[in-house]
Structure formats: C-alpha cells, structure tokens
C-alpha cells in the first residue's frame, strides 16, 4: 500500500529542522561562552555550583548519583531498548510511529549534542567533582538533554496514548526526571546552570522536531493498521466522486454523505473510512471536501435530497459544528471521525480518538439524541454549536493561535497563545438567565457550554452534559497571582477526581462561586450576555467577529448522533443501548 504523501512530507522536515536545531544550539553555546559570558546572570552562576558543593551530604550524594546513572549513556540506551521492544513486540499491532518518535528523539538529541560540542568548548565548574568528566564540553549537558529526549518522549506517549486518571501521575513523574537530573549534575559539580538550561532546551527542541515528523497529523495507530485490501486513492477528485451503489443480498444500499476536512483527513485515512462504511452497508457514498467558503462542503445540498441515512464528519470541532448546524432537526444522524486539533465533542462523548476506531464503534452502536446550542449576537449570525461558545480570554487565545504551530503541535499551540493574553484586562458585562434580572460582573473570560471537558480531562464546566436540556456558563475572573493559582488548583483537582460530583457542584440559576471567587457558574436554557465594548468571540474553536453581545439557547435533543453506547453508561450496562436522560435538570 502506498503511504500518505502528508506523512512523507512531515518526515522530510527532519532533513532541515535537525540541522537548524543544531545551528541554533551552536549559536547559543557561542553566546554563553563568549559575548555574554561576563554579563549577569551568567557571570554569577558559579555561585550556584559553589553553594551546592559546599552543602553536600551523604544522602544527597547517593540520590544524585542514582539520578546521574539514570541519565547516563548506558542507562539511556538500556531504557530506550526496553521501551522499543515493548512498543514493537508486545502489542498485537506494533506501534511503529511511537517507536520511531521515542528512538528518533534519543538519537537526534545525541547527534545534536555531539555537533554542538565540536564547536563549543566550555570547561567544567571549578569545584570538586563527584563523577569522572567525559572529554566533551560542559555545554550543553548531555545527561539532561538525553533525559528530556527519553523520559519526555515517554511522558508524551503516556499522556496522549493512554486513558484513565493515573496517566497524569505517570506523565508528571516522567516529566520531573529531567529537571531533577539537571539539579543532580550541578550538585555533583559537572555542569553550570546554563549548561543544564542548554540541555533542557536541546531536549525539548528535539521532542518538538521529531514529534512534528512522527506524531502530528496522525492519531492513535492510524499508520500502524494492517492493509485492508484495497489500493489507496491519492487524488481529491477520486475521493469526492460518488460511490456506485451496490445492493447486497437484496438489501438496498444505504447512503452516507461524508464531509472531509482535507488537511485533517488525508487520502489514506479517507480511503479507510470509505472501506469501513462500505463494510457496514453504506455503499452509496457522497464525498464532499470542506473549504473556507464552505465549512461543511456541499452538505446542505446533499441533505436536501431524499434518502440520506448518515452524515459522516471527518474533521475537528469546527467541521462538526458546521455539519451539526445543517443536520440538527432533520433526524439524520452524525457519525464522528475525529481528526482535528481538539476533538472536544468526541472526547466528551467518550468516543475513541483514533478515527477509524471511533467510526467502527459508532457504527456498531446506536443512534442517540444530544442537545445543541444556538448562539447569535451583533455581527454574529445565528449558528449552532455542539461544544462551547465564549468571549474574552479563550476567544483571544483561539484567534491568535499560530496556524503553523497548530499543524505541528496540535492543541499545545493554544497554550503558547494563551500566555500572550494572561495580562489582558477584565471585561465588564451583564448576564441574564432565562429572562431573569441582569447580573453585572467583571470577568477575563465567559464560556457557555453544551459539554464541559477540555483537553487532558480538564473539566471547565463540570456539570455540563450534552443531554441535560440546559447550557452551563462559567465566568473566569482571577484577581492577582493568588486568584490564578486558586483557579488552577481547583481545575487541576477536578482532573484526578472521579466518581460522583463534588460537594460544591450544586448548579442553579442563582450561580455558585469556587476557587475564592475566581470561577462563577450558572445554568440556564437561555443566556444573554452583554459586554461594555466589543470583545473577541469564538464558537467551537472558530473565531467570530468581535461584538458586544453574545446570546445563546439550548435546542434539546436536536441532533442525533451515532455512539457506541448511551451517554452515562459503560460497556456491559443493561441500558447501554437505551438513550440516557439526565436524572436532574439542575
């Protein structure tokens, strides 16, 4: 089977990204050892190693020795080989891309490290050293760079490939290894602080470079699936052509309209989707690609024709929103093939994030109704949303996220954008719920949600359910560093909290505040928000025009969707195929 051209293009980036990384590290090393060596803070960094050497203790010597061995050449090679065997031999289907990411990160970091030490010469700190000094420059720290490449790559795989709350603990422990190794290397007199910083930077850059080649643009196990027996089509025209219907055993063919985001769903994945649908009896397939002008392709025209049995959405939340806006109220069900940046609706519906697995399980399940929201405002035509709509901090973050970084990094690109808006002033606004009195507030961000969880299991709206018949609202207004820390601690605690809702999860139209007032929650069927001045607005991750009004209301059960089981149930439950309605309406 021919490989997807997008995959080859991503992996060819290594040919220029790795040399660029090496060149940047060489320039940084020359600056550290030359032009800025006598300037603060570099001129004072010897005090750090002097202080650590003066305060050595037997127990610290033992701990740091163990950490140094963990990041030594022998240790790194040994752990890497064990992990590669585990990825390639133990699974039923070898995880080749994950293995390439892990092994490639370790190899690339080592290669860049050796190149840098050829051009940069820096002596070790002038303190008694507890380890033998290798014949390489002190800059950058090879132990630290190698530990970032190995344990950072393992943390990334744990975070993105596994499920369950325990993965956060494992990933956090792995992410802590490199800084601890860096501290141990300074303690043992082997490196200056800037050597450790250089090692961290080299390791992180390696993960980004190698990850852009082997992890982005794909989802779990997509490129590790075995050949399913048909040549892959490589041309958009061929993929968009209607599939000739064929009756099976006298049963009329079922018709599926497939909406495909061409960047998220490459030719290889599209052909596998085609074959999966064909296997489930959807032999009459009408494919349409999205574009800026047509975010759901020609779905409206296709659905205007009689006989559409299913709409398949191959894309992210923006594509899902555009398709849901057309399909809601028609009775035609949607099936999701998550291949976008956030895939928040799929996450909140507990669908697998592997595109083909999500489609297989959905087609093997049943049809269930979910709510959608309808949002409108000044300069914002009425449109439906399935996840969240908001204004302020989150909308500015979405608006200013780099498209190039989103393509390479995925949702972490939003984190970088968010950092630029941490200092944005609060908005003055009023909130009216279900026609009640207006409440005047100040907030950095306001979000109206049909579902509540963000990436990584972060529950921004803990009571939001897509079958509750209500929308949830949160106002985010931290005051100073204490407020930000309180809000972060509250949200982080919810990531690992399982079971029944916490005691403070008592939703009502009257509102509730948590985290020292940094977060205020409301629940309603209709929400009217008015701002003093135009604000950035977003709907399901798509940037909208700025405006001073944001109105929203729920359309209960308006969208039918294919799911493996009813919401709120697990595999094996007696009522897993029975639509589940919320037992409480707040």
Largest sheet: 11 strands, antiparallel
User: What's the total helix number?
Assistant: 19
Q: So what's the oligomer here?
A: single chain
- Kindly state the number of beta strands: 15
The CA-CA distance between the termini, in Å, is 53 Å
Strand content: 15-25%
Shape: globular
Structural class: alpha+beta
List the uncertain runs: 1-5, 218-238, 496-503, 580-586
What Rg, in angstroms, do the CA atoms define? 27 Å
Description:
There is one protein chain. By secondary structure, this protein is of the alpha+beta class. It contains 19 helices and 15 strands. Strands 5, 6, 7, 8, 9, 10, 11, 12, 13, 14 and 15 form an eleven-stranded antiparallel β-sheet that branches. The protein is globular and about 80 Å long. The two termini are 53 Å apart.
What is the structure about, briefly put?
The chain is α+β, with helices and mostly antiparallel strands and 586 residues long.
Q: Any chance you could write out the topology, listing elements then pairs?
A:
Blueprint: H1 5-12, H2 14-35, H3 46-54, H4 58-70, H5 73-88, H6 96-119, H7 142-161, H8 166-187, H9 193-214, H10 236-240, E1 255-260, H11 267-279, E2 284-289, H12 299-303, E3 310-315, H13 317-327, E4 334-338, H14 344-348, H15 355-364, E5 366-377, E6 380-385, E7 388-392, H16 393-400, H17 403-409, H18 412-419, E8 427-433, E9 438-443, E10 445-449, E11 471-476, H19 480-496, E12 512-514, E13 519-524, E14 526-539, E15 542-563
Parallel strand pairs: 1-2, 1-3, 3-4
Antiparallel strand pairs: 5-6, 5-15, 7-10, 7-14, 8-9, 8-14, 10-11, 11-13, 12-13, 14-15
């Amino acid at each position: 089977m021919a490989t997807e051209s997008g995959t080859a293009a991503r992996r060819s980036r290594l040919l220029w990204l790795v040399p660029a990384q090496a060149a940047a590290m060489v320039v940084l090393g020359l600056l550290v050892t030359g032009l800025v060596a006598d300037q603060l803070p570099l001129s004072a960094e010897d005090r750090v190693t002097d202080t650590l050497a003066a305060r050595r203790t037997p127990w610290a010597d033992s701990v740091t020795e163990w950490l140094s061995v963990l990041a030594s050449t022998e240790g790194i090679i040994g752990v890497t080989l064990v992990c590669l065997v585990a990825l390639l031999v133990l699974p039923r289907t070898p995880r080749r891309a994950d293995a390439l990411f892990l092994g490639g990160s370790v190899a690339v970091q080592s290669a860049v490290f050796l190149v840098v030490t050829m051009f940069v010469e820096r002596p070790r700190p002038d303190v008694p050293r507890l380890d033998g000094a290798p014949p390489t420059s002190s800059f950058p720290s090879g132990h630290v760079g190698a530990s970032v490449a190995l344990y950072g790559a393992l943390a990334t795989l744990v975070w993105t490939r596994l499920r369950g709350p325990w993965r956060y603990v494992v990933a956090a422990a792995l992410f802590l290894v490199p800084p601890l190794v860096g501290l141990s290397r300074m303690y043992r007199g082997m490196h200056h602080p800037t050597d450790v910083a250089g090692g961290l930077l080299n390791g992180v850059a390696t993960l980004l470079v190698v990850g852009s080649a082997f992890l982005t643009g794909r989802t779990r196990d997509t490129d590790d699936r075995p050949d399913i027996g048909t040549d892959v089509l490589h041309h958009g025209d061929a993929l968009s052509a209607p599939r000739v219907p064929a009756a099976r055993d006298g049963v009329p063919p079922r018709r599926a309209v497939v909406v495909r985001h061409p960047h998220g769903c490459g030719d290889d994945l599209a052909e596998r989707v085609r074959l999966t649908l064909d296997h489930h009896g959807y032999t009459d397939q009408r494919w349409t690609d999205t574009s800026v002008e047509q975010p759901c392709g020609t779905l409206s025209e296709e659905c205007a024709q009689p006989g559409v049995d299913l709409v398949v959405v191959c894309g992210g939340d923006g594509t899902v929103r555009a398709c849901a806006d057309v399909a809601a109220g028609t009775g035609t069900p949607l099936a999701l093939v998550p291949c976008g940046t956030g895939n928040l609706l799929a996450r909140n519906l507990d669908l697998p994030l592997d595109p083909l697995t999500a489609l297989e399980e959905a087609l093997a399940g049943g049809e269930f109704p979910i709510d959608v929201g309808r949002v409108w405002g000044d300069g914002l035509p009425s449109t439906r949303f399935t996840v969240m709509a908001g204004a302020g901090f989150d909308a500015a973050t979405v608006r200013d996220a780099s498209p190039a970084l989103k393509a390479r990094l995925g949702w972490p690109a939003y984190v970088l954008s968010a950092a630029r808006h941490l200092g944005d002033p609060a908005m003055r606004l009023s909130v009216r719920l279900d026609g009640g009195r207006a409440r005047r507030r100040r907030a950095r961000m306001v979000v109206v949600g049909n579902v509540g969880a963000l990436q990584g299991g972060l529950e921004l709206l803990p009571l939001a359910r897509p079958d509750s018949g209500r929308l949830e609202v949160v106002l985010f207004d931290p005051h100073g560093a204490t407020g930000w820390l309180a809000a972060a601690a509250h949200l982080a605690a919810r990531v690992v909290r399982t079971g029944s809702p916490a005691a403070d999860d008592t939703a009502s139209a009257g509102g509730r505040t948590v985290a020292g007032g940094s977060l205020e929650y409301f629940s309603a069927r209709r929400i009217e928000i008015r701002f003093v001045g135009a604000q950035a607005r977003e709907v399901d991750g798509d940037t909208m025009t700025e405006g001073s009004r944001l109105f929203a209301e729920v359309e209960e059960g308006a969208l039918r969707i294919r799911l493996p089981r009813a919401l709120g149930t697990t595999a094996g439950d007696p009522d897993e195929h029975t639509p589940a309605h919320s037992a409480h309406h707040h």
